[in-house]
Design brief:
37% of the residues lie in helices and 22% in strands. By secondary structure, the protein is an alpha/beta fold. A hairpin with a 2-residue loop joins strand 7 and strand 8.
Length: 202
């Protein structure tokens, strides 16, 4: 089945809890945002849109042929990136929203979410691990007008609360793992050290 989904990567945050731009922190010899972009690049989307206020992040997206949209009003919150992504996408069946700070995203889980969505394109599809939900979330294009009315930092939660047309899909813990603060980043480094240790002992 042809994938008519637009991937929209929201990468305009101020990283206030981190105290520095977390998207440009290094993990495994790459910036955090590069891990996210590289996985999405490997997936088959109708188009891939990167919304950011950061020139350096935009350049990383351009290398992978993402459509880069500059967010000139990042202070308006996450909703501004969401709306810019939708406004700058071509006609799509749906929008799959990613955040830039999930370096352990799993390609198989992304494709799993897409496959579930394609079973019935009227449903919002949300990843879940042991009762916890996260990103990326797929919204059918029928919600476009509601998406364009979003305000502030709440994202699409109001839309989710207003409908029963939702499917939850179990994914790996790593897929939902995101980096909000220095403890999360240190946790990421610890996970890598444990994986390297296991790999070297085999």
């Amino acid at each position: 089945m042809i994938n008519l989904i637009s991937a929209i990567i929201m990468a305009s945050g101020f990283s206030k809890r981190m105290g520095r731009n977390k998207l440009l922190m290094k993990y495994n010899d790459k910036f955090l945002i590069e891990h996210t972009l590289n996985i999405i690049f490997q997936c088959d989307f109708k188009e891939k849109i990167l919304v950011t206020q950061y020139e350096e992040v935009g350049k990383l997206g351009e290398v992978l042929n993402f459509k880069v949209i500059i967010n000139n009003c990042p202070n308006k919150g996450q909703s501004e990136s969401i709306k810019l992504g939708v406004e700058n996408s071509n006609k799509s069946e749906s929008y799959m929203f990613f955040v830039g700070d999930q370096p352990l995203l799993n390609k198989n889980d992304i494709e799993k979410l897409i496959n579930v969505f394609q079973e019935d394109t009227n449903y919002i599809v949300i990843p879940k691990y042991k009762g916890c939900c996260g990103n990326p979330v797929i919204y059918p294009s029928k919600y476009k007008e509601e998406i364009l009315k979003l305000e502030g930092d709440k994202g699409g939660k109001a839309i989710i609360k207003s409908t029963s047309k939702i499917k939850y899909v179990e994914v790996l813990e790593n897929t939902l793992f995101d980096i909000d603060n220095i403890d999360d980043f240190n946790n990421l480094l610890e996970r890598k050290a444990e994986n390297d240790k296991r790999h070297n002992s085999n």
